[in-house]
Amino acid sequence: MSSKVKRTYGSKKNVLVRSHSSTLSSSPTTESTSPQRKRPLQEQSNTDIGPPSKRAKTMRRTKENSREKGKQKALTQLHFCIDQTVLRTCPRCDLSYTKGAPDDESLHRTHCARIQKGMEWGREEERDMIKGGVVQVSTAVKLKDGRKGRIIYFRGDVGGKIGSKLTSLLETINLALSAPPLTPTILRESKAYLFLLPSVTPGREKIAGCVVAQRITTAMAIASARECEQACQSSPTPTATLIAVDADTGVFCHPTPLPTPLGIPRLFVPSAHRRQGIASHLLSAAAETFIHGCPLDPRKGQIAFTQPTGDGNAVMTSWGAGGVRIYEE
Ligand SMILES: CC(C)(COP(=O)(O)OP(=O)(O)OC[C@H]1O[C@@H](n2cnc3c(N)ncnc32)[C@H](O)[C@@H]1OP(=O)(O)O)[C@@H](O)C(=O)NCCC(=O)NCCS
Ligand SMILES: [Zn+2]
Questions:
Q1: CATH code of domain 119-326
Q2: The N-acetyltransferase ESCO zinc-finger domain covers which part of the protein (predicted)?
Q3: CA angle 97-109-186, nearest 5°?
Q4: Is pTM, for the whole model, over 0.90?
Q5: Which residues fall within 8 angstroms of residue 287, CB to CB, at 6 or more apart?
Q6: Backbone angle region of 276, left / alpha / beta, with phi > 0 → left and psi within -120 to 50 → alpha
Q7: Chain-centre distance for alpha carbon 200
């Protein structure tokens, strides 16, 4: 048995590549070791490195070329070789992109707005509610700042306008978490729960949070601080008896798979809406309604997260009161 849980999210290398299918990835960047966020490590395609390589080519000039050009009378333009990086990492969304490349800048602007404020739930999605099998779990859910929103859910493999919206939303979440796309199999056994807040535009709403809930069979119990201590005392490393989930969060779990019905592979709240209780409300809604007529309780070990981020671990501990388990996606 492996002593480490396979990572749900990508490596922490801050490498972004514009992919053919994605509407939201950017150009390749240098590596960075941000301890907070997990950056995507996507499939790299040489053909996609547009603006930077183009620029390098125009900047490469030999001495001979320069002298020859100098003899020409109609010399009108000089090119300077400025060998400095144009990569920029946005402090608000943590995305690295090529500054000055119109495609990258535009991809970044879209991603940044979605990460901060969330995507819109518009009239088109609203019109498709019945066709998309959307269920409203609760209305007038009060947040800490007094605002009220509603919670809806629908199948993870929903089609139509709602399916397209979910695809874009999951692309943004995966890019933010450096996570791989959820497979069609996972989406088939999942429900997406959204928290919708009234937008400034009348009749429109913002998606202020998303939880994907998935049917699973087993998960592992998280070891308490005391159990980790005991594991360290009985052998030089705790991984002799426990599984290390993530070195950053310091989460270890017991290797025995235990029957667990509900998994949470994705959890995201845009930064402007955090610490209002949205993630907790969404998790409670999922626990309450995922299996019809059978409400689940995290304190009884009935819900599991995939490898959590630092923020995810904080919610997991707070909302799950120590009973949430860990599973591999
Ligand atoms: C994790 C995340 C979904 C939390 O959403 P949220 O709506 O802010 O969470 P809640 O408001 O329900 O938080 C409930 C409690 O969890 C704890 N908590 C949540 N975020 C925390 C943080 N950043 N630091 C410390 N504690 C935190 C607190 O105890 C909080 O209660 P409090 O605000 O009364 O102190 C959000 O921070 C996020 O989207 N982060 C980026 C994506 C991510 O890491 N997802 C998790 C993948 S496992
Ligand atoms: Zn940004």
A1: 3.40.630.30
A2: 77-114
A3: 85
A4: no
A5: 262, 295, 296, 297, 298, 302, 303
A6: alpha
A7: 25
Going by alpha carbons, the residue nearest to atom 32 of ligand 1 is 275
Question: Of 186, 205, 189, 188, whose CA–CA distance to 197 is shortest?
Answer: 205
Q: Which H or E run contains 51?
A: helix 50-59
The DSSP result for 287-311, as a single string, is HHHSSTT----GGGT-EEESS--HH
Output the CA torsion 184→185→190→193 (10° steps): -20
**For the segment 171-193, what is each residue's pLDDT rounded down to a tens digit?**
999 999 999 999 999 999 999 99
* Nearest atom in ligand 1 to 37's CA: 44
Angle at CA of residue 105, ends 102 and 107, nearest 5°: 105
CB 254 within 8 A of CB 301: no
Q: Where are the domains of the chain?
A: 9-117, 119-326
